[in-house]
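User: Quick sanity check before I run a bigger batch. Here is a single chain. Can you write out its predicted 3D structure?
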Amino acid sequence: MPKRIFLLVLSLFLLPLTANAVRIKDLTDIEGVRSNQLVGYGLVVGLNGTGDSKNTSFTIQSLLNMMERMGLTVDPTKVDVNNVAAVMVTAELPAFVRVGSRIDVSVASVGDATNLAGGTLMMVPLKAADGQYYAVAQGPLVVGSLAFGGKAAKVQKNHPTSGRIPDGAIVEREVYNDFESLSQLNYRLKEADFTTLTRMTKVINEYFGAEIAHAIDSVAMQVTPPKSYQGKLADFVAEIEVLDVVPDIPARIVVNEKTGTIVMGDNVRISTVAVSHGNLNLVIGESADVSQPNPLAQGQTVVVPQTTVDVNEEKGNLVVMSMGVSIGDVASALNAIGASPRDLIAIFQAIKASGALHADLVVL
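Assistant: Done. Predicted structure follows.
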């Protein structure tokens, strides 16, 4: 067989495996390499009469405190804050970020302001859970919405009381992380699974030609870098995270009865079971007949109500699904009896109750 044809046949055998493969970087996180949440409180100024009202006393107090820090003394009774809004500012401090780097911030009103469009956030220190300040935010808001109207009508698109400031915060403090000195790397699966973690350790060990990775439980995997990667830990992580692994997922059906949404995993299996589903339609009609006496006769005009009831039960189709059928067979069989998404939810719950459904049924 020519070499080119041999490689083509080999690629066809490997195609189903690689088509379902996922990079390790998309399945795991490295312990200690994560972002940190930041929060702060501040004022947005420059609003066009859409700020907080006088009922929000904390906005007035915040404005007076800011003016006082700037050396101004203001009479509280003469302060109007309809162009000012009190807001909460949130951001995420990425891992390995350096002093002077910029990060995005989100701004949301905490008072009764109606629109933050056109506003500018005044300088707000952002602190983490340890109480230390790590960044300072300031700048004009990008709201991306509109809200106009009068007393009788109003037009609104999107949410005008929250917005973002791209690159709106400057990092002033770094989170200490001595990554290069680590002698071992602890990986954490985003979805716990023994099979996926075992496949991952096998792929890593085969790639490096040594037993450097081993699973601790269904979530954690410990990897010891070879001596050749001492001082080059970033290069070692880069090589690992691009390796492909075929993840295994549990058999699960997720249904949302409010929206009629059904999501089924590929590993869903059922035992032999017969399913019949019929709809009962009940139609009630109301009409009125008028009974009127003859001319010059004694009597009164009477309205006599007439009620009709029509009961129509659709003929149920009995469908037998054999043991071990796949998700495609299940979908075809249930579509054959004309079941709607909400009917399917009831059918799945009944099959689960009978013990024939070999999958987790999650109802949202």
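The longest strand covers residues 280-291.

User: Great, the batch can go ahead then.
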